[in-house]
Amino acid sequence: MRSLFRCGALHLLPCTTHSTMHTSISPHFHLNASLAFHHHHHHRPISQKLLITSVATVPNFSLNTPSSSLTLRYTLKRGSLKEAFQSLKTLFFTDPLAIQFYLEEACAVLLDLSANEKALLQGQQFHALLVKACALDCSVFLGTKLVHMYGKCGSFLDAHKVFDRMPDRTIFTWNAMIGASVSNGNYVGALELYKEMRVLGVSLDAYTFPLVLKACGVLNEHRLGEEIHGVAFKFGYGAAVFVCNALIAMYARCCDLDGAGMLFDSMKEKEDPVSWNSIISSHAAAGLCLEALSLFRRMLEAGVSSNTYTFVAALQACENPSFLDLGMEIHAFILKSNDLAHVYVANALVAMYAKCGKMGDAERVFKAMLCKDCISWNTLLSGLVQNDLYSDALKYFRDMQNSCQKPDQVSVLNMIAASGRSGNLLNGMEVHAYAIRHGMDSDLQIGNTLIDMYAKCCCVNYMSHAFENMPVKDLISWTTIIAGCAQNECHLRALNLFRKVQLEGTNIDPMMVGSILQVFGGLKSQNFVKEIHGYVLKRDLTDTLLQNTIVNVYGEVGNVDYARCVFESIESKDVVSWTSMITCYVHNGLSTEALELFYSLKETKIQPDSIAVVSVLSAAATLSSLKKGKEIHGFVIRKGFFLEGPVASSLVDMYARCGILENSRKIFNSIQRKDLILWTSMINANGMHGRGNEAVDLFKKMTAENVIPDHITFLALLYACSHSGLIAEGKRLFEIMKNEYHLEPWPEHYACLVDLLGRSNSLEEAYQFVRNMPIKPSAEVWCSLLGACRIHSNKEIGEVAAKNLLQLDTENSGNYVLISNVFAADGRWNDVEEVRSRMKGNGLKKKPGCSWVEVENNIHTFMARDKSHPQSDDIYMKLAQLTKLLEEKGGYRAQTKFVFHNVSEEEKTQMLHGHSERLALSYALLATPKGTPIRITKNLRVCDDCHNFFKIASEVSQRALIVRDANRFHHFERGHCSCGDFW
């Protein structure tokens, strides 16, 4: 009996139709059909007539064999893998004689079932059964079936072992092995097998070509694909529809859409929807959406029946907001054709609406789906994350867990990203725990996303822990951890990590360089930035993205000249290039240059984005350039920018800093969805103009709308209270910040509270507050106390504050100037000289007073005692006339006690008359129509004498004088100031 099995002499029944016939046009069809053909023509080398005779003369065992064999045949017909396997085992052990008649037939069917269901364990058991029955020794057919099964079940090594041990192979065996290679991602191996077939002279068939062409497409082997195209044509298979479809897909994946199009156009028969699907999806994948949709229309006009894959390809072409209307038309067409029930079509609809930003429509399609697979959930989750709907994404993730669908790696990646972008650390940790429980935490991509999530949540320790626990790290891992350290100001840790990367010999790419540049920007190290810049030039790593980063970092470290040189060297400047240079100018106090560059950008074809607008609004605000600010506001409206987020906040801030608080209020009230930054900007705007009570009322409205304040909000509130004399309110808000919102005060908060107490002459309370601070008082704190002591002439506490301020050895020249002025007011000229010498020894210079005024869309700048203006003589003449008029009509007298120089009274008076804000006022009176408001900005605090001068000037000139100094706004009208002499 064993010899019969070995020699294959006993041939009974052909493979059943169930095992060999499939209606699908996929590459798997040819394999099963080929195997059946091979079984008849190769395993049985006899004529068709003899074969029919042999089969006809076999006794009908279904009538004479035991019931176990009948059970086997019955279960094979039903296609039940588990039951058929059990019946086969029973027959094998109970009726060894009968098994010889059914083994090959049964195993062929069962191996196909195992392949289709990817049931590797059952397939291995069938393999063992065949080995035990010695049925593989000369059965090429069964060996080929095993190769096919192992390939489909993902066990590529087992498929290769069976293939290598086969003494004889047919074209079907080779096709099965190439198919196993392709389905398991071993595309190089598939092409190697193809080359080996050619060397051995194996005769190819039509079903070989789709497999190797797919491998060529994935590997971008365009030249080899063209060669295989020639071979297919030579063998007479070039006109086969499924070979043409594979060729179209190969050319498209190799970015040769012209070749794909020419081949498609040359096809005589275009009735196969697969051909159309291939060419449509090829154009959609290449981003040629309009061409893909045109092909879809041609397909409908040609009367070719569209199917699921057609709709999916067409909807992929509509994943752009500009094609949304066409996508909705296709949606309606799908509803009419009743194809929406197919899960692939519904998934494509969800993806299309999500990519177009229509998440409401995406959710409606999703909820209407009768059957949802993992891709359905992941498509929705990805869409929600891409559209910044993070809380909704987390909700659907929980719904996914509660349903029968188990989240996979893509689901987890989306949720980690959502947690990071929303700063939701708790949810991020929950998803991390889920990944650990389900064995996903060792995945490289999940590990990288976890690092990024913890970095965005400012959780550096967990970020480092996630990085260290990764079993395998790639370049993205190192880049992400370094960028995370840079974002969280752990600059030295990032630097050490970068050194490790270099020691490990990992190739450094532009993204890594960009991350380390951010570190050096944070360290404010020009030398390090120059070193990295040189490294980039030597390694030829320069691209536009990296050049933009270099411009930005040079701006951060204050090297404007280098930033400008790099900017000018960028050949293909994009909007980020321009924005980086504009931001560089703004960051380094060159607001005029920033505005000029923005106007140059508008002359190009590049459209400024919201970040560029925010930067240039900051420049206009710094200069208090109302006309420029209004022009930019008009540009924002014309270009259709949404008045929300950073743009709205910047407009509120710009109008406030240009002295038009009413415009800030109008913009603020027009925004429906107010975020924390907008509320904070409006609170700060009121504080800047001395509207402390309005600022506090805004805070109450904000908290009533469940907007949670942060450190910056409370800083703006304390500032507003300080400049409005709201002592009790300021102290209460300080306690609310600590006790209700559990925000640990920054040094700036302490300085604000000290300033608040000091301005109200509660110097003893302020001093005790400083002494009892839980942290070491900063220079800002002692500076606030010392300033209050100078105003209220408290020498004792002032002496203590000055001493502590000097011990801190601050690099802020303004602190030295303040100490010097306190000593000068007390006539301690020796101490004044000592402080000034110490200041010079530290390489510091007093910041010169500077004022500017906007006249006829130009900014005119004046320094103290400046004579560089073209109309300088007229300006000084006007100033002399104005001073005499104020003395005669307003009773103005120069207060020389505010001149902190050891010179004569006459010289002190001349110094006061030459202050920059008075020169700006004189020019504005000359150059602007009578009765119009005058807006002046000064970089330092307005001195007491100039403050009195402007009060009298507003009454005598009958003009509104709006002055913004380093502390706040002063609205001078009819002899009064909005600050109430409290600034």
UniProtKB/TrEMBL annotation:
PROSITE patterns: PPR. Residues 891-983 form the DYW domain. GO terms for biological process: RNA modification. GO terms for molecular function: RNA binding; zinc ion binding. Keywords: Repeat. PPR repeats lie at residues 170-204, 272-306, 373-407, 574-608, 675-709. Pfam families: DYW_deaminase, E_motif, Eplus_motif, PPR, PPR_2. Signal peptide: none annotated. The keyword Repeat applies. InterPro entries: DYW_dom, E2_motif, E_motif, PPR_At4g14850-like_plant, PPR_rpt, TPR-like_helical_dom_sf. It comes from the Eukaryota. Belongs to the PPR family. PCMP-H subfamily. This is DYW domain-containing protein.
